[in-house]
C-alpha cells in the first residue's frame, strides 16, 4: 500500500499522464509531482512486477490459453506492494525491492504481454483507483485517462518521435549498464507500441479531453513548465 503523503491543498488532484514507451512520462510525472508536492504513481511498475513474476515462472510470450490462469495464480501466491516513494514508485515483491530488476528489456516486453491479459488489468486497476482516490497525485501509464481516471482533473498524452524515444530509452538502459544498441531498443519499443495500442483490453489511446504534448526536442524542464501552466489553468 502507498505511504500516506503529507496533506496539502492538492492532495486529491489527479493528473493522468499516458503515452507510449520512452515519451518521457516517468521523468516528467515524477518531476511534476514533486513540484506540486503530491504523490507520483508509476502504474507501469505494477505491470512490470507481474511481468517479473511471469518471467521467473518461465512463461514466454506469445501466451497460450492457460497463461492467464497461471499469471493470476502467481499474483495470488506472491505479495506485490506499491509505495509512493521520493522520486519514484517503490515496488516490493515478497518483501524485496524489485525496482532494478523490473527495468530490464526482457521485463519490459513481459510487462507489455501480461498487461494485455484482461484478468491482470481487472486485478490492478481497482488498486490504482484506490490509491488515486485516497491520495490523489500524478498517475502515469497507458490507460489512466481513458479507463482508470477518465474524470481526472488534468489528462495529458505525452509523445515523441520514434527516434527520440529510442534514444532516451537507450540512455536509460546504458545508465543501468544494460548492453544494447539503438537498433535493438527501437525494435523492442515498436513491438511494445504495437502490443500496447492494438490489444483488446484498454489499448493505449489519447483520452478525450487530453492535452497532447509532443516532447521531441523539448527539455524536461520545458515539458514540466508546460504542464504546470495546464495545472494552473484548472485550479
Ligand atoms: O510505462 P512502462 O513502460 O513501465 O509500462 C510497462 C508496460 O505495462 C507497458 O508496455 C504497457 C503496460 N502498462 C499498461 O498496460 N497500462 C498502464 N497503465 C501502465 C503500463
UniProtKB/TrEMBL annotation:
The keyword Ribosomal protein does not apply. ATP binds at residues 19-27. This is Cytidylate kinase. The gene is cmk. Residues 15-232 form the Cytidylate kinase domain. It comes from Candidatus Sulfomarinibacter kjeldsenii. Its EC number is 2.7.4.25. HAMAP family: Cytidyl_kinase_type1. GO terms for molecular function: ATP binding; dCMP kinase activity. It is found in: Cytoplasm.
Amino acid at each position: 500500500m502507498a505511504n500516506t503523503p503529507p496533506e496539502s491543498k492538492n492532495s486529491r488532484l489527479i493528473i493522468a499522464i499516458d503515452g507510449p514507451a520512452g515519451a518521457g512520462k516517468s521523468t516528467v510525472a515524477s518531476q511534476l509531482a514533486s513540484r506540486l508536492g503530491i504523490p507520483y504513481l508509476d502504474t507501469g511498475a505494477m505491470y512490470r512486477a507481474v511481468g517479473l513474476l511471469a518471467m521467473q515462472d518461465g512463461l514466454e510470450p506469445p501466451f497460450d490459453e492457460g497463461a492467464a490462469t497461471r499469471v493470476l495464480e502467481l499474483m495470488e501466491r506472491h505479495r506485490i506492494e506499491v509505495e509512493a516513494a521520493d522520486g519514484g514508485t517503490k515496488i516490493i515483491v515478497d518483501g524485496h525491492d524489485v525496482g532494478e530488476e523490473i527495468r530490464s528489456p526482457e521485463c519490459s516486453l513481459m510487462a507489455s504481454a501480461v498487461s494485455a491479459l484482461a484478468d491482470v488489468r481487472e486485478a490492478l486497476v481497482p488498486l490504482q483507483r484506490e490509491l488515486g482516490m485516497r491520495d490523489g497525485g500524478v498517475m502515469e501509464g497507458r490507460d489512466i485517462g481513458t479507463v482508470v481516471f477518465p474524470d481526472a482533473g488534468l489528462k495529458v498524452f505525452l509523445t515523441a518521435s520514434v527516434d527520440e524515444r529510442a534514444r532516451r530509452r537507450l540512455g536509460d538502459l546504458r545508465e543501468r549498464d544494460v548492453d544494447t544498441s539503438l537498433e535493438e531498443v527501437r525494435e523492442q519499443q515498436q513491438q511494445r507500441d504495437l502490443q500496447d495500442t492494438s490489444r483488446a483490453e484498454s489499448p493505449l489511446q489519447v483520452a478525450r479531453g487530453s492535452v497532447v504534448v509532443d516532447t521531441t526536442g523539448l527539455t524536461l524542464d520545458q515539458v514540466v513548465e508546460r504542464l504546470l501552466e495546464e495545472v494552473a489553468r484548472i485550479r
